[in-house]
Amino acid sequence: MEDLFVPKDNNYDNTFLELSTVRTNAIDLIYDNMNIDLEPLSETKIIEAIGKLNTGKDTDEFGISAEHLKTARSILSPIFTSIFNQIIATKQIPLFFKTGVTNPVLKKLKDPTLVESYRGITVTPTITKLFEYVLLPHLTKNFIQADMQFGFTEGLSMLIAAFLVTECKSESKHVTLKPLYMIAVDSQTAFDVVSHIILLDKLYECGIHPKLWSIVKDLYTDMSSKIKWKGEISDKFPIQQGVRQGEVLSTHLYKVYINNVLNELMKSRVGMKIGNIYTGTPTCADDIALLSDDIEELQIMLNTVLRNAKQDRVTIHPTKTNAVIINKGKSCKKKPTMESRHHLYNTNQPN
Predict the structure, then answer these.
(1) Strands 224-229 and 101-106
(2) Would you state the pLDDT for residue 216?
(3) What is the pLDDT of residue 3?
(4) Which of 1-5, 228-232, 249-253, 254-258 is least confident?
(5) Cys bridge to 110: 42, 117, 262, 312, which one at CB 3.0-4.6 A?
């Protein structure tokens, strides 16, 4: 499982990575010489963040649980206020904030003898979780989430995404009388392969506060983890890619990571629409559904996803990503075959 956290080249767009590296290094240099203060954290904010910690969970590797912080919040809140404000002022994260213990969890109905059958859930230090809860409102402040993203968002759910698919089916069947095609896109180990450099580049584009950008950069520098298996814990190893499943910031950072492709598809207006309302890409975190009443348009959408995946160094699963005909309509073309969908299954597809 350690190998999962090491970047690999799978015919990705290395030019895009090089450009992101240049940009990120330039941003880091500029921000390092800037002195733009962030509003100091108040004790009230720390108490609110302690209240958000989930109880009933295992203790972290230091033996600390959410219950400890909640029980002693009146004593600890002024201490954490001072510590966190010092971290923000210096833009330097303590090394123990960056550790974690990864527990391999077997995916449903998977072969337990295969490494890829497990999902790594990381237990991070409770104090790190608290710090991330404090940071999260600041990180989301200027983020404009794609309209078609329904995953891990307060007030939204995957049921809304499913409802859109149902409404598109009804529109094609009863109004336009056209066929409806769908490709369910599956990304391999999506959260675990996020490029830290590209993520920082995308965070800059979101317009987050310079000091917050530097803090996130330091948080993902010299990050490490250990593997817990059958009661035994491995030596620590470096985390060179990915946003760890189990971290407070991970879901937001992943939504930032894939926001571009959803916005590009919506702005290009390719895909299904109900009236003049775009409904072509209902998405739950990393699961994207491409909907269209035209098979050539559907291929354009898929090509856009594949191009962005190569840039973002994400692999689209060749067998779990499937094209289906939801409604045949009156002019339905033949369902795409393995050969006609060569772009999906050919890893050497040109950019």
Answers:
(1) parallel
(2) 97
(3) 60
(4) 1-5
(5) 117
Q: How far apart are CA 271 and CA 290, in angstroms?
A: 7
Average of per-residue pLDDT across 271-297: 96
Sequence-ordered list of residues with C-beta below 8 angstroms from that of 314, at least 6 positions apart, any chain: 187, 188, 190, 193
Residue whose entry in the numeric block shows the structure tokens 């409102």:
137
From CA 125, how far away is CA 58, in angstroms rounded? 11
DSSP reduced 3-state for 265: helix
Pull the structure tokens for residue 334: 């033949």
Please compute the mean of the pLDDT values over residues 22-39 and round it to a whole number.
94
CA distances from 308 to 125, 159, 196, 232, 257 (A): 33, 26, 16, 39, 10
According to DSSP H, which parts of 158-316 are helical? 158-171, 196-205, 210-219, 250-268, 295-312
Q: Identify the H or E element spanning 104.
A: strand 101-106
DSSP string, 55-89: SSPPP-TTS--HHHHHHTHHHHHHHHHHHHHHHHH
Q: Locate the domains of the chain by residue range.
A: 14-327
**Which residues 6+ apart lie within 8 Å of 175 measured at CB?**
none
Q: What is the pLDDT of residue 334?
A: 56
| pLDDT of res. 272 | 97
Nearest to 215 by CA among 124, 130, 92: 92
